[in-house]
Amino acid sequence: xxxxxxxxxxxxxxxxxxxxxxxxxxxxxxxxxxxxxxxxxxxxxxxxxxxxxxxxxxxxxxxxxxxxxxxxxxxxxxxxxxxxxxxxxxxxxxxxxxxxxxxxxxxxxxxxxxxxxxxxxxxxxxxxxxxxxxxxxxxxxxxxxxxxxxxxxxxxxxxxxxxxxxxxxxxxxxxxxxxxxxxxxxxxxxxxxxxxxxxxxxxxxxxxxxxxxxxxxxxxxxxxxxxxxxxxxxxxxxxxxxxxxxxxxxxx
Length: 252
What we know:
single chain; alpha+beta; Umud Fragment, subunit A; 2 domains; eight-stranded antiparallel β-sheet; four-stranded antiparallel β-sheet; 22% helix; 31% strand; elongated
């Protein structure tokens, strides 16, 4: 059979005898509803290319477009991988720099040390943790009363913590435990009576480039009275801080 065409003036109207309202706003046949809902949005082109999807309810856009997991997904993952690689490289550079700085600080700046024994009691106790300033004696000289970390002159593989009593050129003598430097009794009120010794030593002049050191626990310390003077090159640094135990933390 052959159907007759509608007159031109009847185009766009219903042919089944209904109200004849215009169908211009109806969803075109074969076009997804989501695309029609997105036509009035700035994302329409992306939706058509499959880069985004939209969610609608009754043909009305209810959510902004979200990236699809199909077209463009490979590019998205590639971008993420590049960012991850860049972040990893940045972290590696940061860690390497931190390691270099730590080496420089330990070598030329500061060192963490632990006290073993009671030779510096009561000023320092066994197992106290210290920060030793190694830089200070690169620009200056040890001074009397400084608490220093040093290599044991008879076995440089070992290190001790002692107090500087006399510098190069000083004359030292000990009479019944009382220490005299250049014939003047030193002020050593940091030594309690029960920690004092009653020995005699000297007199002796400290050679150039050497130091006379003693422990604060005078009757329980191996020091310059027993193994002689300490060359400056054996002095590692100045004890700057006791940081552990925390309640007893102190700057020297």
